[in-house]
Design a protein that fits this description.
Elements: H1 12-21, H2 26-30, H3 43-56
Length: 57
């Protein structure tokens, strides 16, 4: 999905996404098991959603 079509350029979520994109998610990736079913959403995306949700209450 191209969220750029839906979310305005000035939306705070874009700044948060840009900041979070600079993080190294290697340690987060190691927390997920390679066994079992594959998640449709990568862990770093779930992390971004969690941080956004916590920042907006």
């Amino acid at each position: 999905m191209d969220y750029g079509i839906v979310i305005k350029e000035t939306a705070p979520v874009r700044l948060l996404d840009a900041v979070l994109e600079e993080l190294n998610y290697t340690e987060l990736q190691h927390l997920y098991s390679s066994k079992g079913r594959k998640s449709k959403v990568p862990p770093h995306i779930l992390f971004k959603i969690f941080i956004f949700a916590m920042s907006t209450r």
